[in-house]
Amino acid sequence: MSKIHSWWQKARRPLAITLINLFFLGLIVLIALVMLGSLFQWQWTGFGPETSDPKQHAKTLWDWLQLLIIPAVLAIGGYVFNLTSSRNEQKSTQVRDQTERDIAADNQREAALQVYVDKMSELLLDRNLRGSEEKDEVRKIARVRTLTILPRLDPARKRSIIEFIYEADLLDKDKPILNLRGADLREADLSYIDLSGANLRGINIHRANLSGADLRDVNLRGSKLNGAILRGIDLNRAYLFGVDFSGADLQGARLSDTNLSEAQLINANLHRASLSGAQLINANLHRANLNGVQLNNTNLSGAFLRGADLSGADLQGADLNDANLNNANLSGANLSGAELRNARNITVEQLHKTMSHPETAIPDGSLKPS
Question: Can you say whether the dihedral through the CA atoms of 334, 339, 345, 347 is positive or negative?
Fold first, then answer.
């Protein structure tokens, strides 16, 4: 029976396709006969002229068609109904199976989270994790447990892990007990989280949601934030040396006095962000949106600003020495007191566009337009 069932499952679809093809072939033949019968006045089709011939009362093709139409329609309707019901049942089964798999996976993630919290609590309470030294075995165990659990969790539970270890005072910026270098926080939901003063050096926050998060004084050196959502984030005085922000949405972010030297900010959206006093030495801001950004007293020496939109930006007192401003949009930017010694690829036309601000000034002899 199992073999027959398996054969039927394989043969059912080709058989159905064959029957459908035969039905349409027969329908085409019937339509052709009706048209030819009407055209050539064939009596046997029932479409010829009325005569007194007794054979006229014999069953014609049309009479037989009338007898067959209702059963054919019922048969076709029944087949279509069964086919539709079967497909709907298959879809319902697939949705039900997927829901059951999702529930099972979610239960597994929740169980894994609870086990992690229990084990870490043991390390904190029974093995004095907080009072341990840098090379102690208990720290290595805590790190391995944390790095192992994070890739298995969904965005919300990744947040729970970070909140747990932060509240446990394991992420101090100057003397972190738990080293999170290489931690997988991709796509984590960290919106409006408070991690001020934390050491998050070398973590992967690719495409994570950090909107409105408080990351003041945080150490994110060497971390990957490319594609992250960082709207309204507070990164004042944060240490972001060499961080990858490529394509990140930093609209309205607070980055005053932040160290972003050598950071990758390619295509980043910094619209109306605050970068006053920030360090952007040798940072890559290629095609970045810096429209209306506060860059007063910011160090942009050696920065790559090719194609960047600096329209309406406040660059008062900014250091743009050796910066590459090729095709940068400086219309309406305030360059009062800015230093532009050896600035590269900046044209006289670009400077003319900045003159809409009455206080714009360029130091004499500091610029050699190309």
Answer: positive
